[in-house]
Amino acid sequence: MQTNPPVAERLAPAADPMLPVPYRVEGVRSETYDTATLEMRPLASPPLVFQPGQFNMLYLFGSGEVPISISGDPARPTSLVHTLRAVGTVTRGLCALRTGATVGIRGPFGTAWPMAEARGRDVVLVAGGIGLAPLRPAIYHLLANRAQYGRITILYGARSTQDMLFKKELERWRSRLDIEVQVTLDRASTDWQGQVGVVTQLVRRAGFYPPDTIAMTCGPEIMIRFAVRELLGRGVPDEQVFVSLERNMKCAVGFCGHCQFGSDFVCKDGPVFAYPRVETLFGLWEV
Q1: Of the candidates 30, 255, 42, the residue with the CA atom closest to the CA atom of residue 163
Q2: Backbone phi and psi for residue 141, each to the nearest 5 degrees, phi listed first
Q3: End-to-end CA separation in angstroms for the chain
Q4: CA–CA separation, 162 vs 253, rounded Å?
Q5: Which of the two ends of the chain, N or C, has the fewest CB atoms closer than 10 A to its terminal CB?
Q6: Max CA-CA distance within the chain?
Q7: Cβ pair 73, 137 in contact under 8 A
Q8: Is 147 exposed, middle or buried (0-12, 13-18, 19+ CB in 10 A)?
Q9: How far apart are CA 176 and CA 186, in angstroms?
Q10: Residues 135-190: pLDDT tens digits?
């Protein structure tokens, strides 16, 4: 009687971008009540080299596939790291995985944050909620290459202390004297001694020179819209403002058209865009 080979053997590494490559879950860390970070290693393929801002398609066998930005260190590709919120069947299943489980990976896909363009300039990063995860690889890169950049400002907002990501890392970053880190909560609790209010308000008093600043922002679209408004109001040129969008991505290679708007595809031409290119997209509920 013929039996099916193990999943890892059936999913041999392939150059075909539509075929997932098997990865073993090396660890699962709970970030909040609904968000977890998966650390994975390839079973039979080389480490996945990626640029800050790119995403992978994560395939949960028996459930489906979702696009998730990479949240790990681009200088350490041997460990593939994704941080995801449990909001649907696939992401709930991924967050519930245990060490030793197998996940299919396709990628990396999409455009990256403009790290080369930002060299020699001030850099401000504005993140809301889980939007800090796609920006974390950019932060790792900036800190690892600190001398190549001007002032670095990280502005992060969460709904509450229970919703904050990467708390220990935020504390480490805040303890550094060579970067500015501001954190705010939408609503304070008795254990919070920091700032209260939406993250976009922090843009007004952040330390950067607007004409020579590259801004990167990621989070809920309403937050991005107001963050861009504040950045432009401070005088940052619109072509130096970059946003990350992750709308309706399915195939990740521009075949299916689910994420198409005009002649662009969010999966292939994004998810990181210079703001002028997607300005008209903001305010549209679906594309």
Answers
A1: 30
A2: -65, -45
A3: 49
A4: 35
A5: N
A6: 71
A7: yes
A8: exposed
A9: 25
A10: 999 999 999 999 999 999 999 999 999 999 999 999 999 999 999 999 999 988 88
